[in-house]
Structures are given as C-alpha cells and as structure tokens.
Automatic annotation (TrEMBL):
Originating organism: Amycolatopsis oliviviridis
Protein name as annotated: Clumping factor B
Lineage: Bacteria, Bacillati, Actinomycetota, Actinomycetes, Pseudonocardiales
Protein transport recorded as keyword: no
Transmembrane segments: 34-53, 65-91
PANTHER family: INTEGRAL MEMBRANE PROTEIN-RELATED, MEMBRANE PROTEIN
C-alpha cells in the first residue's frame, strides 16, 4: 500500500470533500483570503494610480528630482519594490499563519505523526 493510500478512507474523492468541508480547511481558506484580497486590492490601486498619473499628470511625472531621475521613474521603480515587499510579507504571513494549519491538515489526511 502506498503512502497516498493511507488516508481517511477508501474513496479519495469523498475524503477530499470531507477535508474541504472541515472547519480546519475553512479556517485555512479564511486566513488566506484575509491576506490576499486586501493586499491585492491595495496593489491594484497603487498600480492604477501609477498608470493614471503617467497618462493624465505628465507634468508631475516628468518633474526632475535630480539629474535625469523623474518622479515617473521613481514611481515605476517603486512598483518593483512593492512587489518584493508584498512577496516578503506573504512569505512571513504564510510561515506564521498558513503553513502550520496546512501541515496539520496534511498530517491528518496522511495519518502521519507531527
């Protein structure tokens, strides 16, 4: 018998449905949504602000800060910075809030010790 055969029962599809309906899986989905939806909305607003400023506030975006560095260039580079910051925040959040619960669910499904 393989490791994947040692689950909750003999029907893998009904096992998956039981796991999905369980309170721990529901909590895992809730925790994921609590982070992903607000951060996605904030990033989308930040990106749309950049696009709108680039299109409609060309005078502001072409303002030179020093040398050939403009406000638009700084805003564009900050898009990359914000992506890396969001990635770091997500990894930290997942390590603290999502992974322990996901590991618990996985161990219960596989019937292994933690």
């Amino acid at each position: 018998m393989s490791d994947t055969d040692q689950g909750l029962g003999s029907d893998p599809e009904s096992d998956w449905e039981k796991v999905q309906a369980g309170p721990e899986f529901t909590e895992l989905r809730r925790r994921l949504r609590v982070f992903v939806f607000p951060v996605s909305a904030l990033f989308l607003l930040w990106y749309l602000l950049y696009v709108l400023l680039a299109d409609y506030a060309t005078g502001f975006m072409s303002t030179k800060l020093f040398g050939n560095i403009t406000v638009g260039l700084v805003f564009g580079l900050l898009q990359f910075v914000s992506t890396f910051v969001i990635t770091g925040l997500y990894v930290r959040y997942a390590n603290r809030k999502l992974d322990p619960l996901a590991d618990k669910i996985r161990h219960e499904i596989e019937g292994t010790e933690r």
